[in-house]
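COMPLEX REQUEST
Ligand: ribose-5-phosphate
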Amino acid sequence: MFIVSGSSSRDLAKELSLALDCPLIKASTTRFPDGECYTRIDAESLEDDVIIVQNTYPDGNLVEMFLLQDAVRGLGAKSITLVIPYFGYARQDRVFKPGEPTSAKIMAKHLDMDCDRVITIDIHKESVLDYFTCPHEDLKAAPVIADYFRDRRIDIVLSPDIGAAGRAKDVGDRLGVPHDHLQKTRLSGTEVRIAPAHFDCTGKRVLIVDDMISTGGTIVAAAFALREAGAASVSVACTHGVFVNNAIEKLTSSSLDAVLCCNTLENEVSNISVANLIADTIRRG
Ligand code: R5P
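STATUS: Structure written out below.
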């Protein structure tokens, strides 16, 4: 088995190759002066099962993935598994307004053209994977997030909304602490109250979990409200730290005590590794 590392996921691919004890093959990816992607896999042949680790976000990484699939097949791969730590475009999983594409479907369909298995982590909508014809699996980061916080003294786990309550329950149950979701209540035309739906967080060490942080707006507002309401500390952990613009600075200079994410997107706070989670799944076959 070979691990091919795309440019989006160098550290994760390296960890995965160590966990699975199989060779790591690097793809050298550059851009032509006009911006087009050029990639070359550093191998003469790959006549075995091949795992490509690469995100499909932002757009350049998606194109790189298509090129890697073709290059790997050209080198004789017996099977191709795509490990897509962060699957881009999963939010547009249906047509919300007439005239829109189903972006997630079209991305999946194109990736599906040359692969034998797909592994994603906390994809925004699991239904997106049904667009793949090959075997597919979405892994949950809750166990590794819970492991990270096991000795960090958390009293309650919250999700930013009721829709994500399952993730807070999963992490909370693993830590042996209660969970709840945050609820926005409009107090007046200009005032909104954000508070846990059922629990009082006064004096509590709170952990908010979410699948992704993009601008950080949701979490900054929630952390501010929780500290105002008397929480002793507020930490946040998400699976995908998308962190657009200056979101990391915004979060670290807010009322939050800790900001963590998994290494599905590699950045300065991606200290929770999903490598063993992926390795266990691949070992199981
Ligand atoms: C929403 O469905 C997601 O789970 C996140 O809560 C959302 O994307 C966060 O966005 P932002 O960081 O821009 O507030």
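REMARKS: The chain has two domains: 2-140+274-284, 142-261. The CA atoms of residues 209 and 237 lie 5 Å apart.
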